[in-house]
Specification:
Elements (H helix, E strand, L loop, with lengths): L20 E3 L16 H23 L20 E10 L6 H8 L16 E5 L4 E6 L11 E8 L5 E8 L17 E5 L8 H14 L6 H5 L1 E7 L7 H6 L8 H21 L4 E5 L29 E3 L4 E5 L2 E6 L2 H7 L7 H11 L29 E7 L3 E7 L2 E9 L1 H4 L1 E6 L5 E5 L6
Parallel strand pairs: 4-6, 7-8, 8-9, 9-10, 12-13, 13-15
Antiparallel strand pairs: 1-11, 2-3, 2-5, 3-4, 5-6, 7-16, 11-12, 14-15, 16-17
Length: 444
């Protein structure tokens, strides 16, 4: 099935809204690759960056309570004395995947499939540059995953553990001030999980998306305000043979390669037609032909020869950060949220997005359970600047939430998979209100 350009003509002409735009994702771009570096540097840099932010907040919360290093906890002077320590959390979980379990799988030994790795035996350990200490006391394990940097107030008790009274996260960065609401800032369209394939249902949904963005709908006024389409990953459907390959076989079949090229051509056709009328930013996702590790680099231009001819077609990174009409927006294709959900009992993705903003890090489980590039002198996944909107793609359902940060607020958006729901989200850049638009066809 080939995408067909719509021939319908609207009864009235509407002028497409044009907005100011700036891509600020430079820190996610990897100029040169060096895989001889150790991952320890990432944790060290993360701790340094986020500890500096914690040091500004600790006096406001706990006043003059002394801040100690872990190595000083067991001195006679500091035993059973209330104090504060900082470090990187390690969540010790017996069900967490390990290399030994992977080896047993290769030898066809039975393994119980697990979607969640939480259990009653889970516990937390805090690490700094020199040592580690077990955390006990007033603590909710669902507030943490491995890689979170935090401060803890309590005391060192018998047995060498640290009994917690309170804890403090880095917290969200104060969002930038948004432009005056008196002028129309326009809107953007957010979509994820197109999962393009040659199936009839997929092509119909894609055609409906094209018609909608071209204004062939009942609400042309709202569509005319949409200046940009953000595609948050999982552009292509994964052929069944490839799904089986990822679990067992080590050789891709010729049929799988042909299917993948066919899906890619369909996606190229779709984006080329959308790019005729609107700017398109395409992020890679988990199932797409891009590097596996975060941050995922933009697609190679040769994958989209037709769409690439338009200046309105842009290939961007995952995560992706940009400024539209003065509104700073940060988003991911959802791998970070999906991975975090496996190690907590928090069920709603929007609550995980709030935790991510509070932790001050896009993907704290990198590189423990989620792949990332071994940066030697930085951790670009730290949230450095205040954002007005944070979204994650490829989630089970649409959801939204406003998080208050001082005098401002951050809009959190959970994007559903378009292939399953037929839904896109329109984000009004004036009010930050979301509108869910669902496309479907009733066959008789």
């Amino acid at each position: 099935v080939k995408m067909v350009e719509s021939k319908l003509e609207p009864s009235q002409t509407y002028k497409r809204k044009i907005i100011e735009y700036q891509n600020v994702s430079e820190r996610f771009q990897i100029a040169s690759r060096n895989y001889q570096q150790q991952y320890a540097a990432i944790y060290s840099n993360r701790l340094k960056i986020l500890r500096r932010k914690l040091m500004k907040k600790i006096p406001e919360k706990w006043g003059n309570i002394p801040l100690l290093k872990m190595q000083d906890l067991e001195t006679e002077e500091n035993k059973n004395k209330e104090c504060i320590i900082t470090g990187t959390v390690y969540k010790d979980q017996i069900l967490k995947p390990s290399i030994l379990k992977e080896i047993s799988a290769e030898h066809n030994l039975p393994l119980q499939p697990i979607k969640k790795y939480t259990s009653d035996s889970d516990c937390l350990v805090l690490e700094d540059e020199l040592q580690r200490i077990k955390l006990e006391g007033n603590i909710d394990l669902d507030d943490f995953v491995t890689g979170v940097v935090a401060a803890f107030c309590g005391e060192c008790i018998e047995g060498g553990s640290f009994k917690i009274k309170e804890w403090l996260a880095v917290g969200p960065v104060l969002p930038i001030e948004r432009p005056m609401k008196s002028r129309d800032l326009g809107s953007i369209c957010l979509i994820s999980g197109i999962n393009m394939s040659s199936s009839f249902e997929t092509c119909v949904k894609a055609q409906l998306l094209l018609d909608f963005l071209n204004g062939l709908c009942d609400d042309c006024v709202s569509v005319a305000k949409v200046s940009r389409l953000i595609v948050a990953g999982d552009i292509l459907s994964m052929p069944e043979s490839v799904k089986q390959f990822s679990q067992t076989s080590k050789v891709l079949t010729r049929h799988a390669k042909v299917q993948g090229l066919e899906y890619l051509k369909l996606a190229d056709d779709l984006f080329s037609q959308i790019a005729m009328c609107i700017d398109v930013d395409v992020m890679p996702g988990k199932n797409d032909p891009s590097n596996f590790q975060l941050p995922q680099q933009s697609f190679h231009p040769c994958l989209f020869p037709e769409a690439g001819q338009y200046q309105s077609f842009h290939l961007v990174t995952n995560p992706y950060e940009f400024i539209a009409s003065g509104v700073r927006i940060l988003g991911s294709s959802g791998q970070n949220v999906t991975d975090i959900s496996k190690y907590t009992d928090v069920k709603n993705p929007i609550d995980l997005l709030e935790k991510i903003v509070n932790w001050g890090h896009i993907a704290p489980t990198c590189p423990d359970t989620l792949g990332c590039y071994p940066f030697g002198d930085s951790d670009p996944l730290v949230i450095q600047d205040g954002v007005n909107v944070y979204f994650a793609g490829n989630q089970p359902k649409f959801d939204e939430k406003l998080v208050k940060v001082g005098p401002s607020k951050i809009k959190l958006i959970s994007l559903p998979k378009f292939s399953e729901t037929g839904s896109v989200v329109l984000l009004d850049l004036n009010s930050l209100e979301c509108r869910l638009v669902t496309m479907s066809v009733a066959f008789k």
